[in-house]
Structures are given as C-alpha cells and as structure tokens.
Amino acid sequence: MKVEKIKQFSIFMPNTPGALSRLAALFSDNRINILGIASEVRDDSGLVRIALGADADISSLLSQAGFSSVETNILSVEVDDQPGQLLRVTAALADGKINITTVYGTSVSGAKTARILINAQNTDKALSILETLAEGFPKEGR
C-alpha cells in the first residue's frame, strides 16, 4: 500500500454541454495530469472534484480561466486490486475515529493496483493511521 497527501480541487461549474470539456482542455493545454475525477450535478449547476499530483499553481490557473474552486488536501491510497482493500482502509480510519467526507477511486481490469482517493476531516491524522497500516500494523484488515 502506498499513501500520500495530494491536492483536490472542487470546481463549481454550470450544468451545460461543453463545460467539462472546457475544464479538461485547460488541464490538457497546461500538461497537468489528472489522478482522479468525480462529479455531482444538481439542476443547473455541478461540482467537479479533481485530484492532482501537480505542484503548479492550479488555483490561480482555474481562477484566470473563470472557474471558482476550493483547494483541499486529500489522501491517495494505492492498494492491491483485490476484494477487501476498501474495507481494510476504511476500517482503519473508522477505528481511528476519522470521518470520511468524500471517497472515489478506480482500478483497471488486469492491473495489480487500485487507487482510493479520500477526503477526511483530519487529513494528517488519517495519513498517520494509513501509513501505520501500510507498514503492516495490523497486517490484515477486519
């Protein structure tokens, strides 16, 4: 398991054709790789969450392009792509009294690893708990 703190940007967007494409073009044009993406839509507006490993000044870039956003730290957790890994991670955080506010992730068929992206109320404490878990204490989940 590999755990690291990365940036997430919650970007407020209109729910209109082409809005996500415009955002994707901004990242592509600036050669910024997206590690994860999720969205929620309500009526005429949406929220897109984008996880990035880049060190660039993304807030400024988004603002200059006309996007309103909120930057937060989240955790990227790479796990073996097998059943029970989400339980192992979330149980460790629950045992540590960490509340998860957002979670999303993915794996690719045939790949050996999957990525879980977690926004927690106490990112530093969650990072510490998951680093301990990654070291093998405990070696097994519940």
What secondary-structure arrangement, pairings included, does this model have?
Blueprint: E1 2-14, H1 19-29, E2 34-42, E3 45-52, H2 58-64, E4 68-80, H3 85-95, E5 100-107, E6 113-120, H4 123-134
Antiparallel strand pairs: 1-3, 1-4, 2-3, 4-6, 5-6
Summarize the structure.
The protein is an alpha+beta fold and 142 residues long. The protein has helices at residues 19-29, 58-64, 85-95, 123-134; strands at residues 2-14, 34-42, 45-52, 68-80, 100-107, 113-120.
Overview of this structure, please?
There is one protein chain. This protein is α+β, with helices and mostly antiparallel strands and 142 residues long. It has 2 domains: 2-73, ACT domain (Alpha-Beta Plaits), CATH 3.30.70; 74-134, 2-Layer Sandwich (VC0802-like). The protein has 4 helices and 6 strands, in the order βαββαβαββα. The protein has helices at residues 19-29, 58-64, 85-95, 123-134; strands at residues 2-14, 34-42, 45-52, 68-80, 100-107, 113-120. The protein has a 6-stranded antiparallel beta sheet.
Keywords summarizing the entry:
142 residues; VC0802-like; disordered C terminus; alpha+beta; Alpha-Beta Plaits; 29% helix; 6-stranded antiparallel sheet; 2 domains
Largest sheet: 6 strands, antiparallel
Please bin the fraction of helical residues.
25-40%
**Alpha-carbon Rg, integer:** 16 Å
> Helices and strands: which structural class?
alpha+beta
What's the CATH C level of the largest domain?
Alpha Beta
